[in-house]
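If you are new to this repository, start here. Below is one unmodified record pulled from the training split, so you can see the exact layout before writing a loader.
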Amino acid sequence: MSLSIDEAIKKVLSFLKSIPMAPATVKYYSCCCSHVRDYCQRNALQEFSYKDAASFTAEQLKLAENGKFGKIYALIMRKAAY
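And here is the target side for that same chain:
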């Protein structure tokens, strides 16, 4: 069974809420997931594979190198994508 990007994000966030994780951390991951969703929309992706996660991560690291945000943020985005 294949899930839409939005359904998959909802399931991930629901799981994060169910484990001992601070609400602020879940909110932070929600923000990261919205960036993944935006990436999928920009690239017309209906599914998000490990290959897509690698491409997304490469894009985030390049943005960090260009000073858009810090490398730590890019690495957190990578974690959210995978």
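Two things worth knowing about this chain: DSSP finds four helices and no strands in the chain. The longest helix spans residues 23-42.
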